[in-house]
Design goal:
This protein is mainly α. Helix content is about 75%, strand content about 0%. It is built from 13 helices and no strands. It is globular. The mean pLDDT is about 80.
């Protein structure tokens, strides 16, 4: 497939991501507006930090008068899972993929973009990731800005309902590969169960969500690799 076709395919798959981002970031914009952000500041913050949990944490700390070091440390913890995602996604690129492509894709690596990229068959063409980013990142930033501008006009139940779209998109991403591969299906089920359990187990529940995500991902992935390794002939070609 040509780079242009890959780019268009990325845009196509990125449109539902952008719609989900718009809904979630709209609620984020309302929060940002209440702590003193104007629309431009909120949009710029979303362009530079396209991560819901991380941005919510940063806005909360800014509202509390936290210092730069505290905000930076919280961002590192809240977004630590992306380090693991970056390492995983790097294995999807062809070995001769230039470093700058890896760097640019890593800048806007979100849960949803990671999901659609890692689900691609064979090597990942950077143009596909760029296509998804082309619509997803503006969707997140625009939603935040509009949340600041007109967020208070909408009733609370309408804003909450908008966020459901992102969960629906996640389901649409994981169901097709799970339907094709029984191992993936079981891993999805186990991941849901362990993620829920980690929220209520006394000692583990106090660990920041980003760190919990990394721990669960490493443990589940390691167990899957040891018990059901992928044959060499199933690797990317």
């Amino acid at each position: 497939m040509s780079k242009l076709k890959e780019y268009k395919s990325g845009i196509r798959d990125g449109i539902p991501i952008a719609l989900g981002y718009f809904a979630v970031s709209f609620a984020l914009g309302i929060t940002a507006g209440k702590v003193g952000f104007n629309a431009l500041q909120a949009a710029l913050a979303s362009l530079l930090c396209n991560a819901s949990a991380g941005e919510y944490a940063a806005i909360s700390l800014i509202a509390a008068g936290a210092g730069y070091a505290e905000v930076a440390l919280m961002e590192l913890v809240a977004n630590a899972r992306y380090l693991l995602m970056s390492c995983t996604l790097s294995q999807k690129f062809s070995p001769d993929t230039p470093f700058y492509h890896r760097l640019i894709v890593g800048f806007d690596l979100t849960d949803e973009i990671f999901a659609v990229c890692v689900a691609r068959d064979g090597y990942l063409e950077p143009a596909y990731a760029y296509g998804a980013m082309t619509v997803a990142l503006p969707g997140w930033s625009l939603g935040t800005a509009l949340g600041v501008l007109v967020g208070d006009v909408l009733p609370a139940f309408a804003v909450s309902a908008l966020g459901v779209a992102l969960f629906g998109m996640f389901i649409a991403i994981i169901i097709p590969p799970a339907a094709k591969n029984r191992t993936i299906a079981w891993l999805v089920i186990i991941s849901f169960i362990l993620s829920c359990a980690a929220k209520y187990i006394p000692f583990i529940s106090g660990i920041p969500s980003g760190i919990k995500t990394i721990i669960l991902t490493v443990v589940i992935s390691l167990a899957a690799a040891l018990l059901r390794p992928i044959p060499d002939d199933a690797d990317c070609e």
